[in-house]
Amino acid sequence: MSAVATVPSTSSLQTALRLGALIFPLAMAGCVSTGPSQQELARLPNPAYVAMYGPQPDEVHPIPQTDISEVDPQFLRREVAYGGREQPGTIVVDTAARYLYLVRENGRAIRYGIGVGKEGLAWSGRASVGRKAPWPRWTPTQAMIKREPERNARWAGGMDPGLENPLGARALYLYDDGRDTMYRIHGTSEPWSIGENVSSGCIRLFNQDIIDLYNRVPVGAPVVVLNGPSVIQPDPIVRVSSY
């Protein structure tokens, strides 16, 4: 006997259509809710920056991924147009704007976000990089110990290098006419502090950024520290990476 196809009745079709009309929007809503919205996608960090601030496992003290999701994007490393008068190779620290510039050729500069401590506001002027140190040892000043004894007194004899060391992965020591100014440009164990005023320290960068800067500047590089209202005009972004 040959099979006979069963044809649904009109009432069955109407019922199925009504059920489909109810179920389809719910199914679609379920599909949409499983992925991020356009607004959520817009808030995700730029993949180039995620890579830029990624882990560095080959360091003496392996550096983990820096969470930049809560960092104001203006403080992430980038190349910008630069209209200042300083010569290429000069470091310019703009404490008011929370930026550090490494001046390059052809009206360009690499701009890094910084955090500024009390010691970072205590000195301004011209200096040079007197020495450089990877994974430096840190010793708090007497002023730091007095200001935060519960935090700093136990390190009066110095803290060994490491991820918890306040100087981070690298330090540049500024000298003026051969004398140590006690002013430092260094990494940080507190990445949330970039773009902020902080209680202690000089000029801090993300560990990934201080490594980048350290690799670009030699001992003897000139440094200009501006301490007051920013005189550097806003800089159009040239590019984020590949520089």
UniProtKB/TrEMBL annotation:
Against Pfam families, the record matches this protein to:
YkuD
Ranges for domain L,D-TPase catalytic come to 89-226
Family annotation (InterPro entries)? LD-transpeptidase, LD_TPept_cat_dom, Transpep_catalytic_dom
Q: Does the keyword Transferase apply?
A: yes
Q: Quote the protein name from its UniProt record.
A: L,D-transpeptidase
> Which organism is the protein's source?
Microvirga alba
Q: Which CDD domains match?
A: YkuD_like
Active-site residues, Swiss-Prot/TrEMBL: H186 (proton donor/acceptor), C202 (nucleophile)
Q: Report the GO terms under cellular component.
A: extracellular region
Family from the record: Belongs to the YkuD family.
Q: Keywords in alphabetical order, please.
A: Cell shape, Cell wall biogenesis/degradation, Glycosyltransferase, Hydrolase, Peptidoglycan synthesis, Signal, Transferase
